[in-house]
Amino acid sequence: MLITEANSLAERGGPESVVSTSPTTVDVDKDGPAAAAGVGNGRRLVTQQSSVWTRRQQAVCVRHAFKHYGSNKNPNHVLQNLNMTVPKGTIYGLLGASGCGKTTLLSCLVGRRHLNSGEIWVLGGKPGTKGSGVPGKRVGYMPQEIALLGEFSIRETMMYFGWIFSMPSSEIQERLDFLLNFLDLPSQNRLVKNLSGGQQRRVSFAVALMHDPELLILDEPTVGVDPLLRQSIWHHLVQITKDGNKTVIITTHYIEEARQAHAIGLMRSGKLLAEESPSALLTTYNCLSLEEVFLKLSRKQGSAPGAPAVPGATDANMTNNISVASLNWGNKKDEPVFVTEESGVVGLNFHQSKEMLINESNGHLDQLNKNRAGKSEPVVDCDDCTDCFKLTTRGKMRALLQKNFLRMWRNVGVMLFIFVLPVMQVILFCLAIGRNPTGLHLAIVNHEMNFTTKECPVYNNCSLTWLSCRYIQQLDNETIVKDYFETKEEALDAVRSGDAWGALYFTENFTDALVARMALGQNSDNETLDQSEIRVWLDMSNQQIGLMLNRDLQFSYRDFAQDLLSQCNNNPKLADIPIQFKEPIYGSNDPSFTDFVAPGVILTIVFFLAVALTSSALIIERMEGLLDRSWVAGVSPFEILFSHVVTQFVVMCGQTALVLIFMIVVFEVECKGDMFWVIILTILQGLCGMCFGFVISAICELERNAIQLALGSFYPTLLLSGVIWPVEGMPVVLRYISLGLPLTLATTSLRSMLTRGWKIDEPDVYNGFIATIIWIALFLTISLVVLKVKRG
Ligand SMILES: Nc1ncnc2c1ncn2[C@@H]1O[C@H](COP(=O)(O)OP(=O)(O)OP(=O)(O)O)[C@@H](O)[C@H]1O
């Protein structure tokens, strides 16, 4: 029968290699691998060259697969020279102990991971190559973890994946109705996060079945599923593979349920111990259960050389992944058994395995062969090539955008974070930063006044008496709280103990000395000059308060002197120092710290909110398994990034509007420039922060690391970008570093627009735009590259 298959292939015009090499005959009793397998029944092994063409005919064909995790120096070998053949139209049960590498193998099949060496063919193509359809809609993958969005309802989950697979909504709904019923799922409007573990697994299974793919890869789909439903799942799998167009690869820890598979691969330590139909395995190993077979094979593999052999199995067949039961294939004893020359797999080239499975699976594959008879298998070269040059599809964008928006909408905390936080930050900044301190205690010792009666008269005319009182009255009562002390020592003690920010001392003949100083001018003696001075001791530990008191004391003296001079009909200008500060070109003579910091604060708020929002976005999806599942469904890194960019852009526009409205309209931060360019620059900075967030998200595996990196970058950026202190105050090296940061030139640009009213044609302004755009491009490129590398 096997030879007939090969001949019929030759008649159909199959590749020459299959036909021309078939006559090579090996005497199995002498040198063939089957000799070691104890095949001494006089049957011949016929070497059949495994060609690319034959491999492409299988649903899955793995040859000499090696895969290790970790570094080359210290590798953890997971797949070791593994060969596997899954004919089309079969259910293939992949069994093995926990940690033997099943999930790794499956992830290589769906293109999520790459082998270190070896070959994989899935549905005629190599996973991950253009046009192979894998990853993509030709495969349905149910990973071991739930890998769904908890915030989505069952219906929304189905819509998400259905749209990714370009299915129309009506078709998705039809499929959904069927799957809800078939998998005994609750109402389609229930949120996934509120379902039981078993229900969630069934939704995950439904997602894999959704688009009716050619190849279903199911990693433990029956965990947490009751026996009845388990049986109906298996029944369904048998049904869908019946016509030979669908193939299922399934892993399960319930070994006995795999009896319903057409073929079983028993895997251990990165190798297939055997690859057979369940009944062949039971017969060959003379066991009653598959579990027994597995134990026998495992013991054999683990036993020392020279240990008693399991009937029908040897070290040689195990290491060569030989299908022992294939030796029973064919009804006649003298029929040859084909050996795939390259792989060393006995019997498991596609014709033999099909043939075998027909016999072993109650005729199910008889039907399969009938369906295919006379039909030459099309070689899938570029099945999906209409999509090869498309960047995305409408369905994918619709799915990804809805997912991003719904996710935000459903999460009240995130919504508050997005819109309330920037407003709160602006309000807090405007209320807390830049205002003059008030209620500062000043310890005053005035020997001119009577300390007991506290008498200190003030005359607002040309009276030259009690001038110390007149000066003290000039001090702003809101800023300064005046505490009187009898002696200088007491006043200084008040400063030392932190009860006052400074001490002010007037001698007992202050007024006389001051009048003499004004009258005598350059003829004043030192004694007069000394006595006319107001002595001040400040607590300069707080620079802002110290400098402000210093400034207020001087301005108060100038106002006091000008007032006195004008009351006495003298020119008040005599009280000024001979430097005249005219109306400033930009800004005011009484500049506000708020106006200096505000541009940088606006950009920092928008930049770092975007970082915070995006830095964990991809990580959460990755940790939920949704990212992996989306990759397998055929979504590209570009599509993921693009959908996030669009979502974030919408959010950014809202945030920018709120920040600018509160800063400029509510708190009246100066804005002399063109509002249009101010808005554009702010949005661009938000986009820049978002792209930086993507980089963090793509680089970090854990959310914790992303938070650390985002927070860690916050302070250096804030300190070095000239937001709170001029760049000109930094050491030269830091200045260059500062110029290379994304916020520095943008802050200068926004400051120039807000406070100077400069237009876009000024270099200081347009440099900020150019730098921001360069950073956006750089961050996007980095995250795209990292995502592509990580996707494998
Ligand atoms: N990303 C990874 N990095 C490093 N080692 C890994 C990684 N994924 C899996 N491994 C290791 O590879 C081995 C095989 O893991 P794999 O998940 O493929 O096993 P499995 O057969 O699917 O197990 P189970 O049945 O428990 O799911 C294990 O030792 C595991 O620790």
Automatic annotation (TrEMBL):
The chain crosses the membrane at residues 412-434, 596-620, 641-669, 675-699, 706-727, 733-754, 766-787. PROSITE patterns: ABC_TM2 (PS51012), ABC_TRANSPORTER_1 (PS00211), ABC_TRANSPORTER_2 (PS50893). Residues 1-39 are annotated as: Disordered. Residues 17-26 have a biased composition (Low complexity). Keywords: ATP-binding, Membrane, Nucleotide-binding, Transmembrane, Transmembrane helix. It is a multi-pass membrane protein. Residues 60-294 form the ABC transporter domain. It is found in: Membrane. GO terms for cellular component: ATP-binding cassette (ABC) transporter complex. GO terms for molecular function: ABC-type transporter activity; ATP binding; ATP hydrolysis activity. The keyword Cytoplasm does not apply. Pfam families: ABC2_membrane_3 (PF12698), ABC_tran (PF00005). This is ABC transporter G family member 20. It comes from Megalurothrips usitatus (bean blossom thrips).
